[in-house]
Amino acid sequence: MGLAVSLPLPCVRAFGGALLAGPDLAAATGSAAPAAIPDRGAVSRFGTPRAALVAGLEDFRAGASDSAIAALKYAAAGGETLARWKLATIYAAGEGVPHDDLKAYEYFSQIVENYDEDGPNWRDRSLVANAFVALGAYSLSGIEASKVTPDPARALALFKYAAANFGDSTAQYRLARMYLEGAGGDKDSRQGVRWLYLAADKGHVQAQALLGRMLFSGEEGLRPDHARALMWMTLAREATTDSAKDAWIVDLYDKSLAAASESERQTALAYLEDHLKRRN
Predict the structure, then answer these.
(1) What is the pLDDT of residues 50-76, one digit of tens each?
(2) Which of 69, 94, 123, 143 is in the most buried spot, having the most CB atoms within 10 Å?
(3) Residue 219: closest CA among 266, 187, 185, 249
(4) DSSP H stretches of helix in the chain
């Protein structure tokens, strides 16, 4: 008997109030990244940074990469957060331009360095949170042949800021992994499990799968709970979208389901129903 069912699992990103007092912004980000100077000659073409943003997004959707990049760069230099974020993601993915992680890093840095934590623009919260997470990932791995070298301590600070101050589930998951692995600081299983629960409860698929595995086998001092573990694994299994990247989740679910008793499976279904009612 399987637990897999069709679940209404929309992607949830909660950006409510801070979960706890966050780390200092300057300490998390390091030295400021200078913003680009606007091309004054572009004024006649775009008029305002906001108009350039709109033109850039429209051109990008139409496949006109060159004109889109020019417009977005003008908008980014004029302070448009969405333009900076779009350019960062374009260069990170190599969409219509050569892949360039350093350029992506620089645009993400502009977003973070221009974020005013005393007077935040609520419209941009999700973009700013995403920029913190992206910079944390780059700080963790470094960028080959560049000034950006691996710095786990900085990555930990960036993930912690985004996790605590924005409630970003990806930041919470990355922070949990670092605490559990002792990366960037001392290993702290208690903090790791705490942040993992928060990310899983927000619907982060990898967090749900990892939490399920830990509960099933009793890792990091957790009391084994097969039924609760199966609930988290089922949520993760039903939300998988990438057959290659998520193969480990499917395999984990299948093996754990086979090892569970019928009573544990039934209890897991009851937990699952309660969880979905609470979420809805």
Answers:
(1) 999 999 999 999 999 999 999 999 999
(2) 69
(3) 187
(4) 25-29, 43-46, 49-61, 65-77, 81-93, 101-113, 125-141, 152-166, 169-181, 189-201, 205-217, 226-239, 247-259, 262-279
Query: In this structure, what token pair is assigned to residue 9?
Result: 């699992």
62 phi, psi to nearest 5 deg: -85, -5
pLDDT number for residue 32: 45
CA 211 centroid distance within chain:
17
| pLDDT tens column, 241-274 | 888 899 999 999 999 999 999 999 999 999 999 9
User: For the CA atoms of the chain, what is the radius of gyration?
Assistant: 21
Residue 187 CA to its chain's centroid (Å): 22
Judge contact between 181 and 197, C-beta under 8 A.
no
The answer to whether 114 touches 68, Cβ cutoff 8 Å, is no
